Amino acid sequence: MGCSVTTAKVLLIDDDVDLLDMFKTYLQREEFAVTVTDVAAMGVAAALSSDHDLAVLDVMMPDMSGIEALRRIRLTSLIPVLMLTAKGEEADRIVGLELGADDYVAKPCTPRELVARIRAILRRTRIVERAENPPAVIGAGLVKVFPRQRRAECGGTPLDLTSTEFNLLEALARYAGRPVSKRTLSEQALGRSLARFDRSIDVHVSSMRRKLGTTPDGRSWIQTVVRQGYQLLAQ
Prior knowledge:
Shape: globular
Number of helices: 8
Radius of gyration: 18 Å
Mean pLDDT: 88
Low-confidence stretches: 1-6, 127-131
């Protein structure tokens, strides 16, 4: 089955108790360790406990919105977060991605789809990646990516990237100086094919641009190449 992530600890945060029970049962059947809560504030505390590998967070929560919960999580934690959003609510998805969500799934979704998204994220964040013997460092001018340690820096300053942002930067760094299509970036960073009208890559890149700052001559480190994708400058 390839790289196994079935021992991962998943936190489910959703006020729909029946949905929680269904997802929990399915995830446990797939051999995940699962913790559930239907209270957003308790979910935030659990996510910040460092006891989980990934959190699944619903946007629509009564005591605190999922967006606010995500904001609080991202103040101190880079735990991968998969957002559950209402179908057609693009604004929630974009805000969630801007705040550091790694990906989203539109509800209603099947347990099988949820597990597929969870596995796609975990494959790119867990230590099993090191078995693929990645290079110690990928350099692109002042931007350096350290795949084995899953960290990056620009001009010697560490970059505070989410797991998905790191995956995107690593992919761009591997092709530094050449454009990389959004389809390729989606497959390598999100672990899924690029859907029509999906703006996830664009939102993540926008966030990365802010964190990277500008080159010594004032340009963005990540350039948009019309009809081709994005390119990390190799200077």
